[in-house]
């Protein structure tokens, strides 16, 4: 297929080809396409390395084919020959030899020579020939304009071995300044914006001293030479033309037949005969050492081309880049912007910005803050092992602590995801850290809350017996959802911003991907809801009240930050600095709030309350722990009237309550028995609860005390009717 057999205009031919090839169409075997689109169509072509003889490929190896016919990927070790040049176009300078000879001038070899020669001859000729102009610019709002800029900029590099100058280089800056100087000295805005039709007409009418244009049939008075440069011996010529390739979707037989056609059309003999008859440039360099060819064409002229391929960022569409590139430079050549402004904007246009630990103040500050927090998190892990602090960290068994802390560190990894370039793997990793981190952080809390509830509510016993199976099942659901997530990798959306710089962001590739993301979000929301419900129930139970309060505080901050993260992820924010700051702040809050509250805030709060309770007789504190065999008792100020319930020999599953409360009156209360004390709940052993409203609640128990001025009254609950020890009583005994 070629643009000529397309039923639409030339400008739509590329989109038609892409539509056919992207659908795997078998309608055509051989495709002709503009070589600039090799990056787009080459992936649909067979690798000619596997079909053509090596000696045939070597004919083109040292020429322009290496730049326009391959798809290279050094990481994957790919060097795919997608096509071969079938027609090559190039830009050259046409010089009016009649006028040059008339004024004894030579063909210019530098742009400064061209400007000086033009000024001299135009000044002389304008006395009799007002239609004569020095040179065209071809700076149109089409691909021709882009090619004209590439020609000129490439001709202003420092040496013949230098690559195309980067937009931030001095060569690039000097090149566009020289182009504007030439326009101002010997041309005009209108003249330099004229297109192809005007240029061809000017040559036939002999109204141009110099013309810069593509290779066409020779016009007698104009001589073709290489385009001048900023320095003598340096030139620049844009590579144009078409490649020929074979679609990989057709049958093996059709591929083999098509390869034979390509082998014939690109053979040495065919290209030689074509060059001799038409003077057309061939992409086989060795042809210009052939005496027969050199009799028909100027081989030295053909060898002198310094070709430049239109390079562009690999993560951009060429069409979009080309339009942005020329439009931006036109703002300097024809507008009011400075060359420095334009080069700076071109640099921003071609870059995609992201934050690193070194490239911005925000990155450095947040990086320092993150590592400080990480150090605090790691250091805080030692707190439960300090003997004097162990009592404050027994709200979870060691295994559940480890699981929860692992989830915290997974979530904290989100803070590092925001640094560096956006990649599909990072998009996947972000989902993993959010999902697994939150689940592992919260599921241990669910386990512990259920274990406590089953002591108070028998209906929870069945759940408690299977709690670890439930925990494993919930994590399995996480795994299954994430496996579905991996089936459809993320796409990277390129966001262009003229004011803040281009950025990239993760976008779901398919509706399945969007659906799975929504399911994961709903699933994590259900886990949060379960913890909230358990905590609300727990607030009604005396022995769970304090921990439930801390859990709810932690959940509120987690939910709020998660909602803000979802909103921020779906909001279009061009300022990547502001987006980074907001996202990083929310990730920090989301990841460490639970750990900070339970590892730091809760222990400090309990410590201060206990300390404060020595001077405030109205405080009622219960510290809940799970521990292996314990025999210690919490000491209190002996000068105040407190009840100290001794603890001994409780298993690791026992929930111990250290109840420190002031009795409702003075020591007379002790002698009168429990009937006169205020209503309090005490947990002994496996949630053995005594409601001391009346003596009827404990008909078989006698409260005895041994008072001492030097010691707190020790209350021992003994069984008057049975020899059984109090530690063996179950809840149902009461």
Automatic annotation (TrEMBL):
Membrane topology: Multi-pass membrane protein
Pfam family, one: SBP_bac_8
Residue ranges constituting the G-protein coupled receptors family 3 profile domain according to the UniProt record: 372-598
GO molecular function, one term: G protein-coupled receptor activity
Transmembrane residue ranges: 365-386, 398-419, 431-447, 467-484, 515-538, 550-568, 588-610
Localization, UniProt: Membrane
Annotated GO CC locations: membrane
Keywords: Membrane, Transmembrane, Transmembrane helix
Main location: membrane
Protein name, as recorded: Periplasmic binding protein-like II
UniProt organism field: Neocallimastix californiae
Source lineage: Eukaryota, Fungi, Fungi incertae sedis, Chytridiomycota, Chytridiomycota incertae sedis
């Amino acid at each position: 297929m070629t643009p000529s057999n397309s039923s639409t205009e030339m400008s739509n031919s590329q989109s038609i080809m892409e539509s056919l090839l992207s659908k795997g169409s078998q309608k055509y075997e051989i495709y002709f396409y503009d070589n600039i689109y090799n990056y787009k169509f080459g992936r649909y072509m067979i690798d000619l390395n596997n079909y053509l003889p090596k000696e045939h490929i070597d004919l083109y190896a040292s020429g322009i084919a290496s730049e326009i016919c391959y798809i290279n990927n050094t990481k994957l070790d790919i060097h795919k020959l997608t096509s071969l040049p079938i027609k090559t176009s190039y830009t050259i300078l046409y010089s009016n030899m009649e006028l040059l000879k008339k004024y004894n001038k030579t063909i210019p070899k530098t742009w400064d020579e061209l400007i000086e020669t033009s000024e001299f001859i135009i000044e002389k000729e304008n006395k009799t020939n007002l239609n004569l102009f020095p040179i065209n610019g071809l700076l149109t709002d089409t691909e021709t304009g882009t090619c004209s800029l590439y020609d000129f900029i490439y001709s202003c590099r420092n040496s013949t071995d230098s690559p195309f100058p980067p937009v931030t280089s001095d060569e690039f800056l000097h090149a566009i300044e020289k182009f504007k100087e030439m326009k101002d000295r010997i041309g005009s805005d209108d003249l330099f914006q004229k297109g192809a039709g005007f240029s061809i007409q000017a040559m036939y009418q002999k109204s141009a001293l110099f013309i810069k244009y593509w290779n066409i049939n020779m016009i007698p008075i104009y001589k073709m030479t290489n385009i001048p440069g900023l320095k003598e011996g340096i030139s620049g010529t844009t590579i144009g033309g078409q490649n020929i390739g074979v679609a990989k979707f057709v049958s093996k037989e059709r591929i083999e037949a098509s390869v034979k056609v390509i082998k014939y059309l690109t053979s040495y003999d065919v290209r030689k005969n074509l060059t001799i008859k038409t003077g057309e440039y061939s992409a086989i360099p060795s042809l210009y050492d052939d005496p027969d060819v050199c009799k028909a064409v100027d081989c030295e002229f053909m060898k002198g081309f310094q070709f430049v391929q239109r390079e562009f960022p690999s993560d951009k569409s060429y069409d979009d880049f080309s339009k942005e590139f020329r439009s931006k430079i036109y703002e300097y050549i024809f507008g009011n912007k400075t060359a420095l402004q334009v080069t700076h904007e071109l640099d921003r246009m071609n870059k995609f910005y992201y934050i690193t630990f070194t490239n911005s103040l925000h990155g450095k500050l947040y990086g320092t803050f993150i590592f400080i927090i990480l150090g605090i998190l790691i250091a805080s892990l030692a707190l439960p092992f300090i003997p004097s602090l162990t009592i404050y960290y027994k709200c979870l068994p060691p295994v559940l602590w480890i699981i929860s802390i692992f989830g915290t560190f997974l979530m904290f990894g989100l803070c590092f995801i925001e640094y560096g370039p956006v990649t599909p793997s990072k998009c996947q990793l972000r989902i993993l850290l959010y999902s697994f981190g939150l689940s592992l952080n919260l599921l241990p809390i669910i386990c512990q809350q259920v274990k406590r509830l089953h002591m108070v509510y028998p209906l929870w016993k069945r759940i408690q017996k299977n709690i670890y199976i439930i925990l494993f099942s919930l994590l399995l659901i996480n795994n299954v959802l994430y496996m579905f997530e991996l089936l459809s990798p993320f796409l990277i959306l390129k966001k262009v911003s003229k004011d803040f710089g281009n950025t990239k962001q993760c976008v779901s590739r398919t509706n399945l991907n969007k659906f799975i993301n929504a399911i994961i979000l709903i699933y994590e929301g259900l886990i949060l809801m379960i913890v909230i419900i358990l905590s609300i129930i727990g607030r009604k139970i005396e022995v769970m009240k304090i921990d439930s309060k801390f859990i709810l505080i932690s959940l509120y901050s987690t939910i709020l930050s998660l909602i803000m993260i979802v909103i921020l992820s779906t909001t279009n924010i061009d300022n990547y600095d502001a987006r980074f700051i907001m996202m990083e702040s929310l990730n920090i809050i989301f990841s460490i709030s639970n750990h900070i509250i339970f590892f730091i805030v809760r222990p400090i709060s309990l410590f201060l309350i206990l300390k404060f309770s020595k001077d405030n007789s109205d405080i009622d504190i219960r510290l809940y722990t799970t521990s292996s065999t314990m025999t210690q008792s919490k000491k209190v100020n002996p000068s105040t009237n407190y009840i100290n319930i001794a603890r001994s020999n409780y298993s690791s599953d026992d929930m111990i309550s250290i109840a420190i409360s002031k009795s409702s009156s003075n020591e007379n209360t002790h002698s009168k028995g429990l009937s006169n004390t205020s209503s309090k709940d005490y947990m002994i052993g496996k949630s053995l609860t005594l409601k001391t409203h009346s003596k009827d609640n404990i008909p078989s128990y006698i409260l005895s005390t041994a008072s001492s001025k030097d010691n707190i009254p020790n209350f021992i609950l003994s069984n008057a009717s049975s020899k059984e020890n109090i530690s063996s009583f179950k809840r149902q005994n009461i």
